[in-house]
Amino acid sequence: MKIFKSCAVIINILPAIAITLTVMSCSSRRSILLPGPVTAGENKQVEDTRVLIIWYDASVGKDALMKAVSNMKCKLLYDYKTFNAIAVKLPDGAGTENAMKKLETVKGVINVQRNSIMRLDSKTRPAAGNLQ
């Protein structure tokens, strides 16, 4: 029974740990504002469709990716340190789909995806002590 209580505590703190690690992994010097609690009716996603997250293979490196980003006149927003990815903003007038396809062909790139906002919802998480 003690094991289940310990697991419940760990499950309850995992979201906070994940957010902390993500924020700490950014190399940007800009301050990051985290939104307050979401109330009913406010769970709308506001996204900039010109921001892309690009995952790369660490064994290949990111030199070719960084050159492609520069050639495409993208703005580097974040260079993540905890995982092998960067966030870039496409220049005005750049087609998102075409840019994604072009970046996917760069040596070492594993995945290119649009930036999106995901909110943790306590309604979908089991309550402590109710892990069955």
The proportion of residues in beta strands is 15-25%
Instruction: Please give the alpha-carbon distance between the first and last residues.
Output: 12 Å
The main sheet orders its strands as 2-3-1-4
What do the pLDDT scores average to? 75
Largest beta sheet, briefly? 4 strands, antiparallel
Rg for CA atoms? 18 Å
Overall structural class, as computed from helix and strand content, comes to: alpha+beta
Topology, number of strands: 4
User: H/E element string?
Assistant: HEHEEHE
| Poorly predicted parts | 29-34, 40-45
What fraction, in percent, of the residue positions are helical? 25-40%
Q: What would the principal axes of the Cα set say about the shape?
A: globular
The total of helices stands at 3
